[in-house]
Amino acid sequence: MTDTKEASEKLVRDFLGSWQGRSLETICSGFADNAVYRNVPVKPIEGIAAIRAIFQAFLDAFSDAKLDILALAAEPGLVLVERIDYFTMTDGRKVVLPVTGVFEVNNGKITRFSDYFDLADFERQSGIKL
Questions:
Q1: 47, 40, 30, 116: which is closest to 80 by C-alpha?
Q2: SS3 assignment, position 47
Q3: CATH no. for residue 55?
Q4: Where in the numbering of this chain does the Limonene-1,2-epoxide hydrolase domain appear (predicted)?
Q5: Considering the entire predicted model, what is its pTM?
């Protein structure tokens, strides 16, 4: 399978958009089994089982999530996304977080996903310690 610019971009847009539907299966469907997920500077999460667990924890903590793309640049197998993530916590608090994400795509699946953001700002707004 060829990871074209268009296919790589669609995979990432579909993943980011899937959070509003809150289906763990749909959210995780674009990831390779050996994918690595990083909330920089937190320790990397390796493998789909561990990624599923952290995404489930996020779904449990947030009643709503909207990942709003501000800018996106794509090459075959590589997508960079500047976005604002809007979360509503289960207790009603709102989190608004500027994020830049880097996605590597191989054979139609996300193999690396790294989010860069202000960790202290996220923890202060959400009450969650990553």
A1: 116
A2: coil
A3: 3.10.450.50
A4: 10-122
A5: 0.94
